[in-house]
Known about the structure:
By secondary structure, the protein is mainly alpha-helical. The protein has helices at about 1-5, 15-35, 45-60, 70-90, 135-145, 160-175, 180-185, 220-245, 280, 310-325, 335-365, 370, 405-410, 430-440; strands at about 100, 115, 200-205, 215-220, 255, 265, 270-275, 285-290, 290-295.
Amino acid sequence: MLNGYFTGTWLRASPKNTQAAVAYDLKKWLDFVASSRDRPTWRDATTEDRAAFEQWRRKDPRGPRIASTTWDREVATVNGFYQWAVRQGHVPGNPLVQRPSRARRRSVNEPAAQTPAEASHLGPRRDLEWLTPVMYRCWRDVGVRGFTSDGLPDRSFRGRYASRNAAFTDMLIRTSLRISEQVALSLFDLPELTHAMVNARTWLPNAVAKNGSGRAIYIPASVLKDVRDYIETERADAVAAARAAGLYDRIHDPLIVEDRQLDRVRVGRQWVGVAQLDPGERRRLLVRTDHGLEPAALWLTGRGTPATVSAWQQVFKDAKTRCARHAVRIRCHPHALRHSFERRLGLPHATFYRNFADLIQQFQQQTSARRLNRKLTVPVRRRGETPGVEAQCRRPFEGEARSGTIATELLAERRLTPPDLPGVPPKSTSRHAHRRSVQERLLVEPF
Length: 447
């Protein structure tokens, strides 16, 4: 019955790491009910069991004393499981005490939603960590490349793959990829480096992207050159050593690309494109070359095998240790690099809107009451538009006749210079398509 929760709900299409996190949180609760409360099954759990579980998880000196954010995540996981079990008729009621949610209702007649009363609601919900270009370069040089805080080589540094790790982190912060997405990239997903190129466009396959949301990504030429250098040096050495040791011949059930020009493999009796393979299948994907077999994965370990997400997370942990040793107080994790990219993408928009509002306010103070009654065209978010920095204002300066609006007059007097950004995305335009158009026109300052 527990398997039905993972195969018949939204978890079926969720990423594997999300499924693993849900299973791990459920296991802790189910183990506690069976071992510490002497309940026959989880169906017999009561509100008293939940109170005892919270006491042990958060307050008991002999317990793990988890943080509020961790507890809130576990509460949401167990609550979702019991809500599903109640709907399916497996249990008569939810052992988690509910209370009316404080979320805003769509209408007055709509009943208030229910939320677990035992959630702490104390976690830092909007505390996003991000790095400026100067902070990132300092963290990368000291923590990843093995330099001192003064910019000199650290003689005590013993890292063997500094250039590979630096290329990996540079690609993270310049493309806004998640670490799981970047780890799953193959050689077939890497664009070619051509002359006079600023940004190289490639496509992140749906099978690799989170929630199947494939999208176009743009890799700066400088980052792409470093990645190509890694392929020709460190990666080539690791592949040669693994090939000489016969490591690739011992892979169980490999998927082999026979022709490098045709990015497809035979799975059973049919041909499947490399873009359709999930991260697990890509770890078994090999390419036959003139020198022998070679992994199709882009990022390899020193042994020549595809690197895992946990291995790259260890790189960030090692970088944190080195930064602490050199008194560099910069904390960085993989998702902070993604936040840094989004933050850099949003700054020109915010600056433009602030200048727009200031100029309109100044213009209002200098005009008559008749002109103040005219229609204003200001940056507002409309219903159906993409929220955040991508929600654009209506642009009267783009192919529109001068109708006497204040915004049009400001632009005509050259007192306001709009950024080279796309206008409001039409309803038929997807969120990723609009974001791609923003990236195409916005050149982010190099890190």
